[in-house]
């Protein structure tokens, strides 16, 4: 049973109080899956009994069953990292190398097919924005950093929301309707990522989501959606396909910007060599540094 769709279909028949609880539930799924019923009710401004009645009216035995339905819908109810790691230890390394490279090849092929018609739209939103913000926390950070770092070589109006020193609000307070947020995440979804997404939607900014499923809370609120598979024989999800999508977006952005991008890249590259940030092969570096 899809809990989101169930709420939407039953919403008109609910009492005003239950409608308020239902609307809050749809808008705060990330809090729902980590908070107790009492704590979630306090945030929603309703009594815990109201949440219990809501769950029962939707066809669930109780609030716990509704909560577990959302957890499963978000992809959070699968095999734990620890269990997957134990399986690796038990099975050993025999054929693991081939399995790993085979899984990566499949993920890349799936990403190519899934995003065949969506890449141009995503690039258009990214290119036309007054300011672009790139966001990806925890395991999604390498994808976000790669996209931001290379993009900055030829585009000034891009910022990375890195979360260092809990500084998210330094960026989210500046969101505006002319801006675009490129947000990256996969199950289990980071609470901070969803908070940034919520801030962008409130500000009217456009959202490009790189995520793992159409059911992802990132994808469901995005204006443009790109998908990457995280399947891996290892204990931890793979980000290889996500990196490949970021690299494809960057190549397309350069092609769109044309000679302006080429000039900016050449200027940046020249500065990097002249400043000593880039070192040519065979050149000795200062032993003191």
From TrEMBL:
Stretches that traverse the bilayer: none
InterPro entries xrefs: Homeodomain-like_sf, HTH_RpiR, RpiR-like, RpiR-like_SIS, SIS_dom, SIS_dom_sf, WH-like_DNA-bd_sf
Domain HTH rpiR-type: residue ranges: 1-77
Source species taxonomy: Bacteria, Pseudomonadati, Pseudomonadota, Gammaproteobacteria, Enterobacterales
Matches recorded under Pfam families: HTH_6 (PF01418), SIS (PF01380)
SUPFAM superfamilies the record matches: Homeodomain-like, SIS domain
Keyword Transcription regulation: yes
Name the UniProt record assigns to this protein: MurR/RpiR family transcriptional regulator
Domain SIS, first and last residues per copy: 122-264
